[in-house]
Amino acid sequence: MAPFGATCVLAFALPDSPLAQPRNIVGGHALSTAIGLGTMAVCGTHAWSMALAVGLAIAAMQLTRTVHPPAGADPLLVMLSGAGWSFLLAPVVAGSVLIVAIAYLYHRLAAGSSTQRRYPQRWR
What we know:
By secondary structure, the chain is an all-alpha fold. The protein contains five helices and no strands. The chain has helices at residues 3-13, 22-43, 47-64, 74-81, 86-110.
């Protein structure tokens, strides 16, 4: 899933960013994907419905304090690929949880070196 590349940049290179925290990564991707799937189910795939889905995803992430910029592309990916609801669990939720787990381990191992990064800054 292409947005995961940008998620990795945040989680591994900018672990102190509020946008790179587990709540934002997992919540942002799950919420945005669900909104994309729901919008596609109700409205179909059109330029206006894709714009609506992205706008709704941004608003929902702001309301839930789960803003994660790479997740903003999830509704587009869902709608352009014609993904089904199973896409929400795999690869989206499973993949985002895996990224957080690997980032956690990576930063724990790197803590012994000169980087001294603490990840995550907060779990919620």
